[in-house]
Amino acid sequence: MNRGSGESRGGVNLPALRGYNEALLLDLLRGAGPAGLGRAELAARTGLTPQAVSKITARLGADGLVVEAGRAASTGGKPRTLLRLVPGARHAVGVHLDRDELRAVRVDLAGRVVAESGGPLDFGAGPEAAVEAVVRAVARVGDPTGLPLLGVGVAAPGPLDHRAGAMGRVTGFPSWKGFPLRGVLEGRLGLPVLLDKDTNAGAAAAAGAWLWAAWPDEDADPDAYTGRGADAGPDAAAAVAAGPYAGGGSRTCVYLHVGTGLGAGLWLGGGVYRGARSAAGEFGHQVLLLDGPPCRCGARGCVEVLCLGAVARGDLSEAARILGEGAANLVALLDVDRVLLGGRVVEAAPEVFVAGVGAVLAARALDPARPVVALAGAGVAEGAAELALAPLFGRAG
Q1: 255: which strand partners?
Q2: Fewer CB within 10 Å: C terminus or N terminus of the chain?
Q3: 310, 320, 326: which is closest to 359 by C-alpha?
Q4: How many angstroms separate the CA atoms of 299 and 283, rounded?
Q5: How many CB atoms are located within 10 Å of the residue 189 CB?
Q6: Backbone CA torsion sign across 162, 168, 171, 174
Q7: Are 88 and 106 in contact (CB under 8 A)?
Q8: What is the pLDDT of residues 15-64, one digit of tens each?
Q9: Of 114, 168, 150, 127, which Cα lies nearest the Cα of 26?
Q10: What span, in angstroms and rounded, lies between the C-alpha atoms of 42 and 38?
């Protein structure tokens, strides 16, 4: 949904859909930021009756999720009371399981990071060791006041089965195949757990950046935030401006992650596109060079082995060019609006990668209106947390 263009999902005046309608109003209030919205605006945007909106917002207020945000300027009649979301009312945790490190964040309902933790991880040590590392990380970022968590989003290397919550045969780590990571973690944590590919979480983070921009830290303790949100400075602001909803109409982006591996997350039609078998986005294993160097996936000449090989040689310009060629193939196939770059390799030399990928896309463009290339502006752990928040706002992520 693109709130900036005034579009919205419609509500349904049926008691059986009470939860759906509550999520719908919360979603609109989240997008409105601290300024909030009036009950009449909420009714107009959802199609719910004013009476239904009043009842729903009263329940949300009783749950501590919504408060009054003051009154709108009078236009001749009685000033309207505005309502806003309470970001600190609930939190969620996002965890990024990489091949050699783990990062966890706790976020509020506005997607702002309020705590984070990170450290080394040996993915090759097997699932049991990784589960213990996740449990410890969630405990470290948990709220010391005891505020309950909505859930935990876990982003891991693919392939994996998002629906079943089970790992696939991760390239280079066959012992992970079939491990029911979601179920095991739910049993250990006693919380809902969502498992997705790291690249899908990256795409969700990129899409969520425009929402985070609506929530500066003015209504919160400034010492409680790490500054990783959209108000963290000019770089973050630029990332928000380049996000998949920038300009009031953009709805598609590709997130390219370059770290210990290389993959893509696809944000198409207002949500993460995972494919029929959760296998979409295996970008790193498209073949660019027939009979090229062997890749750990078993093929030869893949984008991943070529790009990471250039990185290992210290030739970042060549790595960016190779990444750009793969990106150009995706752009030609999907006709996306944005190509967003993330991962530790990109973060170490952002200007090189943005310029290099952009140059290839410009050279191969068949249409002068080519996609914008920019940094993603948010990490995979933040995206995993965004996916964990999604059900509260009536979204599947």
Answers
A1: 265, 340
A2: N
A3: 320
A4: 13
A5: 18
A6: positive
A7: no
A8: 446 688 999 999 999 989 999 999 999 999 999 999 999 999 999 999 99
A9: 150
A10: 6
Q: How far apart are CA 370 and CA 358, in angstroms?
A: 9
Q: What is the distance, to the nearest Å, from the Cα of residue 187 to the centroid of all Cα atoms in its chain?
A: 25
40 touches 50 (CB < 8 A): yes
pTM reported for the whole predicted model: 0.82
Block residue for tokens 């969520």: 208
Assess whether pLDDT exceeds 50 at residue 187.
yes
Whether a cis peptide bond, with omega within 30° of 0, leads into 159 is yes
> Within 13 Å, how many C-alpha atoms sit on residue 301's CB side?
7
Q: Which SS3 state, helix, strand or coil, does residue 240 take?
A: helix
Which tens digits make up the pLDDT trace of 112-124?
999 999 999 999 9
Are 205 and 270 in contact, with CB atoms under 8 Å apart? no
Write out the H or E segment, with its range, that includes residue 56. helix 50-62
Distance from C-alpha of 349 to C-alpha of 7, rounded to nearest angstrom: 38
In order, the DSSP letters of 281-296 are T-GGGSBSSTT-SBPT
**Tokens representing 243?**
């996000």
* 155: enclosing H helix or E strand: strand 149-156
